[in-house]
Each structure stands twice: as structure tokens, then as C-alpha cells.
Amino acid sequence: MALSLLSIPVELFIEIVSTALFEHPRPSDVLSVGKLFLEVGQRILHTHIRFQTLDQLTLFAEGRTRLACCPRTLTVTLAGGTAGFDVFLHLAGVLRRCRDVLIGAASRDEPPPPVPLDMLSLCLHSHIQNPNLQHIYDALVMANPKTFVWNGPDPDHHFSTAVSTRAGSRRTCTVLILIVPTAAFYLFRAIRTWTRIVHITITSVSFPSDELGLHGPLAHDMPLLPVIPTLRTLSLGQATLLPPGSVAAMICLPGQDSLELVRLVDAYSESIWGSRIRRRDVERAAIALTKGAPEDIVVKVRRLVRCEAKTERIMGGDRVEGLQVLE
User: Fold this and answer.
1) The pTM is what?
2) Does pLDDT of 80 surpass 70?
3) Is the dihedral of CA 176, 150, 23, 95 positive or negative?
4) Record's superkingdom (predicted)?
């Protein structure tokens, strides 16, 4: 006897529809099979929203149909990392549409709440000439994720930085831009507004360094982030112009008790032609900042901070072949 899809367990039906939606080149065809496929399929798509092109991002932002539910995850993965100057303007539109689901439950007199996401994941570049980098802050403050990831689309053997004109690795030299200094300024400003954040992973970031620039350098004694009671892990990879003192200042903040790990992978206090940050660099900075017993702060730094080397240069730079953990 033939088995009808409508007679199988609900969990199995949801799994079948989910697989069909994410494997089919035209998910709308799956939604068109029938009313039940439409109802279940929309909830699946709206629970885990994924964008792989700028057109998808734009069309969704311009949509007027109310979402079936508030999303739990939002992922933007642009091929090659290419992003137009307005990508975060469109991301703001996406989050605004997601936020509309919450407005009905909130008081009309209160401002709309940010979208509570389990994960917000970005895989795209920013551009140093982009005049609209303010949109990064405008978009990200409309979210309130537990996990935030901003990675580059490049293979592990590429070292992409925002300030170098040439980045070398074991296999290649290439010109790449990911999170440029001004973008980093707006990104970390937005992170400060998140009240649910638990895990942060950011790669290929260059921090502000121009003394005459609009947003100035990251001061050596300025905490990288304030105390965020929910934050447990912070991972920075391929970071340049990151003062060890800003990491130390964050760790030394009163009330910084929930933090469990600060992971620095191929992190540099200057350019990639200089030395990678070692844990002892953070220790020395922490001792200089604290007025209490230096032994206590050193113990805390050693417990929280892990510095690693991952990408090696063909020649020159800080070579640490065969050594992964940098103490």
C-alpha cells in the first residue's frame, strides 16, 4: 500500500520538506506543492533565514508579507565575499521585516525590540571607500544574537587583512579586504548594545589606527568591549592594529566574571609584517593597568587568554613554524 506524505509522522514530514527546500534550486516550487507544504515550508524558511546573493537580501527586505514566525538564525554568505555599498542597508531592511513579527506582542508606546536570534552569521567583505559604513551599526543594533560570527570567504591559507596591500601565506599572495577599520568601529559599537550575546567570532579585522581619522585609534588602555554579563567567548582571527592593552583592559574590568576565553589567532598589534601578539604581551599590559597584586591578574590572563599562530608566511614576518600556542 502506498504511503501518503500526510500519513507519516509530523517530524519526518518536516524533515522531508526541510531537505527539499534547502536542496531544490527553486524553493518556491516546493512551497507550491500544496497548502500544507506552504505552511510548513514557510515556517522552516523563516526560522532559519539564509541569503547567498545580494538580490535575495534586497528582495526579502522589500517584501511586505508577514513572516510565519520570528527567525532563530540569520545567515548572509555572499559568493567571494563581494558586497555592495548598501548591503547593510538591505540587512537593516531584513531585520526590520523580522522585527515586525515582534511588534504585535509589544506595546505600541514602546520602541520595537531588537530581533532575538540564536545566531547571526556574516560572510562578506567591507570596503574602505564605502561612505555608508554607518549602516553596519544601524543594522546590527536591530538584532540581539546569542552567537555572532563574521568570517571571510577565503580559504584558511589566505591571510586577508584590511590594511595590507599584499598578504602572503604558505601558498599565495593576494589583495583582500574584509572588515576595514571604520567598519570595525561601527561593528564593536553595535556589539556593545547586545544583551544576550554569548559567543563572538570575528576574523580578518583591522582596528582604527589613524590619529587624524574620524574615529581615531583604539587606545592602548581602552577596553575592547565593556563588561557584557552574558559574554563567555571572544575569538579574533587575523586581526591587525590590535593593542594588547585593550584586551588586557577588558579582562581587568571590575565585574568581568562570566568571560571564559579570549582567543587571538594570528593577531598583530601592528601590521602583519610585525610580531604576533603573545599571551605575555597581554600579561605585561594587564600588570601595567592594575593597581592590585600583579600575580592575581597574571593568573586571570593565563586562564582566559589563548594566543595562537595558524597562517605562516612564505618569507619574512613573524615566523613561528611548529609552534601553535604563543605564550
Assistant:
1) 0.85
2) no
3) negative
4) Eukaryota
